[in-house]
Each structure stands twice: as structure tokens, then as C-alpha cells.
Amino acid sequence: MEAMEGGISNSTATGTTESELEALQREHEEKNLKIQELKRQIELTKNRLEKKKKEVTEEQMGGFNTLSNKYNSLREEYNAMLAEKLRESK
Question: Cα torsion at 53, 54, 55, 60 (round to 10°)?
Fold first, then answer.
């Protein structure tokens, strides 16, 4: 009887080891899938940030151009008024 008990416990131990290995393999596969998903999300987020950065830069350039045009307009108006004042004072 002892031999059978030993055989039973050996097969149970082997079965448990195989189950543990299968469980570890599934866990490993799940973690790999999660890693791939996280990498994909990181790449998408990176692309969105780069796009947003470019949009902000274009908006800022638009604002800069508007201010530059306004400055140039005011400068021309100032120079015209200054020239007129100089002519009047002669």
C-alpha cells in the first residue's frame, strides 16, 4: 500500500507542478499582453502630445503674427504723425 500512496502523491505533486506551470504561463502571457497594450497607449499618447504641441505652436505663431501686424500698423501711423508734426513745425 505504501508504494501506491507514494505513486499517488508523486502524480499529485507532478499534477500540481504542471498546474502551477500552466498558471504561471497564463500569468506571463497576460502580463505580456498588458505590456503590449501599455506600449500602444504610450505611443498613442506620445503622438497626441506631439500633435497638440504642434497645434499650440501654430496658434502661438498666429498670435505672434497678429501682434506683429498690429505693431507694424501702429508704427506706420506713428511715423506718419511724426512726419506731419515735423512738417508743421517748419
Answer: 90
